[in-house]
Specification:
ATPase_AAA_core, AAA+ ATPase domain-containing protein, 25 helices, binds magnesium ion, binds adenosine-5'-triphosphate, mainly alpha, AAA+_ATPase, six-stranded mixed β-sheet, MT-severing_AAA_ATPase, two-stranded antiparallel sheet, about 650 residues
Length: about 650
């Protein structure tokens, strides 16, 4: 029999049409056995016990010819998802269990294997990853086992059926004596075509997933086809190999599979520096503008004060940034380059570009001035509390990778995303950041405002307490009202503890502001106050009573910077002073500043500058100046303090 065009059926049709391998008519008994809808099985069963060895041998030949036709036809590699519909195993579609016939069904795998573009022991045209036992052997176990075939792995079946003899054991039991002697083992297990073999780059999937596929385009042109020893009649092998599947876009998420499979929380995977992929954006980037604590920022509310990156680019900002940091010490501990989009706002957006429309659950239609709020206090709050500082990106915060990831995942994304379904839980509107002084709590609050595209309003507990309880309460209410007027808004209340309990300085109003604060938190962040996020910060979390604590839906510990983060903060701070230390000096400095907060590191550099006579610009800061400053500036948080933060975090914090 020769191949004719009719043999060139698409792969997805041949099981229907060519699995009917019976050369005999089914007996009535067989017809009786027909299970409903089990046509495939029955065809197979007829062939099972009716055909002779000779017929089987002919069939083998015939199949080989048909395959040669199939191989000439255009080949399309189905996607993995296609397995669901085309799952065949031992001729039984969609049935993971072997056919329960009286004898073992013919394992057609012995015919199919080694043929590119066919699926072992199956039809359905699924010549995908699991189709070839050669490939299957290279697949990581979970991937292959997870396909829709659901049956026993093809590789063992192949070995048993194919390696054990030319025909399947089930068949040999009947008429084995009549069969010709099996060909040599080398012929029975032909070498796989190039690209399909264990070392082929095309399907040689690493255990870790799909990372870094070189792409099909990089493959060399397929060489001459291998001989076809599996064709007993000596038929010529199909000349061209099937055209390799078109380049498959390698999804970025593939690289992440390993992490997910490891069963580790993604946010914990956010290593601080040098993190690849998605967390790369958390890598520290020298600031484009001094990120001083907010008090120094102009308070004018000219409509450009959203910390969202849409402010006008200051003239020469880019040049200044590059020039300023060009002389910086190249530091090995520095993270990988910042994630692209995070860098863009300054450079890309035109002057006075409109602020992005509030999105998701953080959106409110309008900022109507709330009734009953003192108009004077509202104006005061608006003019004095709105922070017009530069935007702070995640990369502007050195270290704190896990915390940044947690804030983004548990706060920013839920606030920005629209609710998944009506009635889905409201995203949190309050977050407490606690930790040693200068650890970067306020910096993170500003960063949150930037990420949310929100107006930032800042107030300090100490400032509210100073003028007395009544005035403090009035300002507090005005601040919440001003935030509600300008949604989306982030209201950053530093030194929260000052409002709650008597302090060492014996301020009279301390404690008296607790009730107004709770009322504002309930009203300002309750059901009717969409579009406002309250960020409270404190270095004395133990001063918070339960009522206040409960008002903050999320509570995160802001730790002191670790070594690499200290190096980054120091390098930036020193670069701002025109100082470039050698790598060795910087490493020594990092070592010597253990326990310093970010704020204290900034003070250290200022002290060094003062020692060098700056800003009189007598000479650049040297390592000796910094060393001398170390004698004057030291860490304030004691190990005992740090322990108490850890304890409080364990009891009331959310961990990260
Ligand atoms: N991780 C950091 N990366 C870069 N700069 C930092 C970091 N942590 C702190 N700083 C800098 O240290 C200074 C103090 O930070 P910040 O005001 O955010 O600390 P804080 O935790 O709010 O302190 P406090 O408890 O006194 O209010 C700021 O200039 C800030 O830019
Ligand atoms: Mg602060």
């Amino acid at each position: 029999m020769h191949w004719t065009p009719e043999h060139a059926q698409p792969l997805n049709q041949w099981p229907e049409q060519h699995l009917d391998v019976s050369s005999t008519t089914p007996s009535p008994a067989h017809k009786l056995e027909l299970p409903p809808g089990g046509r495939q099985r029955c065809h197979y069963a007829w062939a099972h016990d009716d055909i002779s060895a000779l017929t089987a041998s002919n069939l083998l030949k015939r199949y080989a010819e048909k395959y040669s036709g199939v191989l000439d036809s255009p080949y399309e590699r189905p996607t993995l998802g296609g397995y669901g519909d085309a799952a065949f195993l031992n001729g039984a579609k969609g049935d993971p269990e072997p056919w329960p016939g009286p004898e073992t069904p013919y394992p057609l795998a012995s015919l199919h294997e080694g043929l590119p573009g066919t699926k072992s022991g199956s039809g359905g045209g699924s010549g995908g990853l699991g189709g070839s036992p050669v490939l299957a052997g290279n697949l990581p176990e979970p991937l292959y086992a997870g396909n829709a075939c659901g049956g026993p792995s093809a590789a063992p079946e192949y070995a048993a059926g194919y390696g054990g003899g030319y025909l399947a054991p089930g068949y040999c039991a009947q008429t084995g004596a009549a069969l010709p002697p099996p060909p040599p083992a080398a012929l029975l297990q032909p070498p796989p075509p190039p690209g399909y073999g264990p070392s082929g780059s095309l399907y040689n999937y690493p255990a870790g997933g799909y990372a870094a596929q070189p792409g099909y385009g990089a493959l060399p042109p397929p060489p001459a086809p291998p001989p076809a020893p599996y064709l007993t009649s000596g038929l010529a092998a199909p000349t061209p190999l099937p055209t390799p599947a078109p380049p498959r876009p390698s999804p970025a998420s593939y690289g992440f599979q390993g992490v997910a499979e490891a069963g580790v929380s993604l946010k914990r995977k956010a290593t601080d520096e040098g993190a690849e992929g998605r967390y790369r954006k958390y890598a520290f980037e020298p600031a484009k503008a001094p990120a001083a604590d907010g008090a120094s920022y102009p308070a004018a509310d000219n409509g450009e004060c959203r910390g969202n990156g849409f402010r006008a680019k200051p003239p020469g900002a880019a040049e200044e940034a590059s020039g300023k940091y060009a002389g910086g010490v190249p530091l090995k501990v520095l993270g990988s380059p910042i994630y692209g989009p995070q860098l863009e706002p300054f450079e890309k957006f035109p002057e006075r570009a409109p602020a992005p429309a509030p999105r998701g659950g953080f959106a409110v239609p309008s900022g109507e001035p709330p009734k009953g709020v003192d108009q004077g206090a509202l104006e005061l709050a608006t003019s004095k509390m709105v922070d017009c500082g530069p935007p702070v990106q995640w990369a502007d915060v050195a270290g704190q990778g896990a915390l940044k990831a947690a804030l983004e995942e548990e706060l920013v994304w839920p606030l920005l995303r629209p609710p998944a379904y009506p009635g889905s839980p409201r995203p949190p509107r309050t977050v407490l950041l606690f930790g040693p002084r200068g650890a970067g709590k306020a910096l993170l609050g500003r960063c949150l405002a930037t990420q949310l595209g929100a107006t930032l309003l800042r107030l300090r507990g100490g400032t509210l307490v100073a003028p007395g309880a009544a005035e403090g309460a009035r300002l507090l209410q005005a601040a919440f009202a001003a935030a509600r007027c300008r949604p989306p808004a982030v209201l950053l209340i530093s030194e929260l503890d000052a409002l709650l309990s008597a302090r060492d300085d014996g301020t009279a109003a301390a404690g008296a502001l607790q009730a107004p604060l709770l009322a504002c938190l309930d009203g300002g962040c309750g059901a009717g106050a969409d579009g406002v996020l309250v960020v409270g910060t404190t270095s004395r979390p133990a001063a918070l009573d339960e009522a206040t604590r409960r008002r903050f839906a999320l509570r995160f510990y802001v730790t002191l910077p670790d070594g690499p983060a200290r190096g980054q903060i120091l390098q930036r701070a020193l670069a701002q002073q025109g100082c470039a230390l050698s790598e060795r000096e910087l490493a020594a400095l990092v070592q010597g500043t253990q326990g310093f907060s970010g704020g204290e590191l900034g003070q250290l550099c200022q002290q060094a500058a003062a020692g060098a006579g700056l800003p009189g610009l007598q000479r650049p800061i040297s390592y000796k100046d910094v060393e001398a400053a170390l004698a004057k500036v030291g860490p304030r948080a004691s190990p005992k303090d740090l322990d108490s933060f850890v304890e409080w975090d364990k009891m009331y914090g959310f961990g990260h």
